[in-house]
Amino acid sequence: MATSKAFAPAKVNLTLHVTGQREDGYHLLESLVMFADVGDRIALSLSDTPSLSVTGPMGQGVPTGPENLVIRAADLMGVAAEITLEKHLPAAAGIGGGSSDAAAVLAALRDLTGKPVPDQGLSLGADVPVCLAGKAAMMRGIGEDVTPVEDLPELHCVLVNPGVAVPTGAVFKGLARKNNPAMDPLPAQPGFGALIGWLKLQRNDLEKPAIAAQPVIGEVLEAIAATQGCALARMSGSGATCFGLYASAAEAKAAAGELQRDGWWVAAARLS
Ligand SMILES: C[C@@](CO)(OP(=O)(O)O)[C@H](O)COP(=O)(O)OP(=O)(O)OC[C@H]1O[C@@H](n2ccc(N)nc2=O)[C@H](O)[C@@H]1O
Ligand SMILES: Nc1ncnc2c1ncn2[C@@H]1O[C@H](COP(=O)(O)OP(=O)(O)O)[C@@H](O)[C@H]1O
């Protein structure tokens, strides 16, 4: 029986500009996305009797029925599979856990069966195409326009989620304005200092409405910014996960130690 194992990394939106809104209500975005070396793990095998088992430290509350994005991904490919999903990422957290799981299943089933992935998986979620690309990229449109970005410096980060789920649609609805300024052009082959300098001039436009919905996100950002060596603290996606950037793995690891609180999920990671 054909089997496959896959890693579904956390997606981090280093920037997220909301620059407009389509007639169907979806928002136009510009985002620099990178992927962390922390994530979910998936094992799957082709089978006549499809099934899903959700395990892992963050598995609680993740749907086990047909609404789970890994099942929807198998359905989209028209393939029956037995899937085990080991959750390490918090759900509904702005780091694309479900989207990354879906993308990993799409890629695994494409490789096992030779079938193409319909429409980059966009029908499963706006974040699925960038997760399918799986490497640093500029994401535009509602997420369907993905351009890989080469030559970014090594980045180390801490990811912090305060244990509150923030529904993506509700945060978009809370935006004061939909047509915010576009991102500045990314400098060519930036070193760490140049990339941080550029990032500081960009934004996550969803930060403000997310903090209004869940004020603890503001506390997380302050706590990250106060850690030794933190070059930038920002929210990812629609939250509530926030990240801090550091020049070294040692600083990111020390920050993760400092940021431990009851109910907070904290991970040090490398971004690429
Ligand atoms: C905001 C982002 C940024 O990367 O990340 P997350 O916070 O989800 O991680 C994504 O665009 C989210 O992608 P994804 O989570 O796949 O979104 P979807 O399931 O397609 O959409 C959930 C809801 O968010 C709103 N939505 C989503 C994407 C978009 N470009 N405009 C929107 O207005 C819509 O109300 C939609 O019903
Ligand atoms: N495999 C999955 N992992 C996590 N959540 C999932 C999954 N499949 C479906 N969901 C549902 O999708 C919603 C969004 O989850 P997720 O993709 O992790 O968040 P976000 O889009 O904020 O990064 C959750 O509320 C959860 O109920």
Explain what the structure shows.
The protein has 272 residues and is of the alpha+beta class. It folds into 2 domains: 3-147, Ribosomal Protein S5, domain 2 (2-Layer Sandwich), CATH 3.30.230; 151-271, GHMP kinase, C-terminal domain (Alpha-Beta Plaits, 2-Layer Sandwich). The protein is built from 8 helices and 11 strands. The strands form 2 sheets. Strands 1, 2, 3, 4, 5, 6 and 7 form a 7-stranded mixed β-sheet that branches. The longest helix is centred in the middle third of the chain and has 17 residues, at 97-113. The chain starts with a strand and ends with a strand. Bound molecules: 4-diphosphocytidyl-2-C-methyl-D-erythritol 2-phosphate and adenosine-5'-diphosphate. The site of 4-diphosphocytidyl-2-C-methyl-D-erythritol 2-phosphate has 19 residues, from strand 3 and helix 4. The site of 4-diphosphocytidyl-2-C-methyl-D-erythritol 2-phosphate (SUD) has 19 residues, from strand 3 and helix 4. The active site is at residues 11, 127. Catalyzes the phosphorylation of the position 2 hydroxy group of 4-diphosphocytidyl-2C-methyl-D-erythritol. Residues 199-261 form the GHMP kinase C-terminal domain.
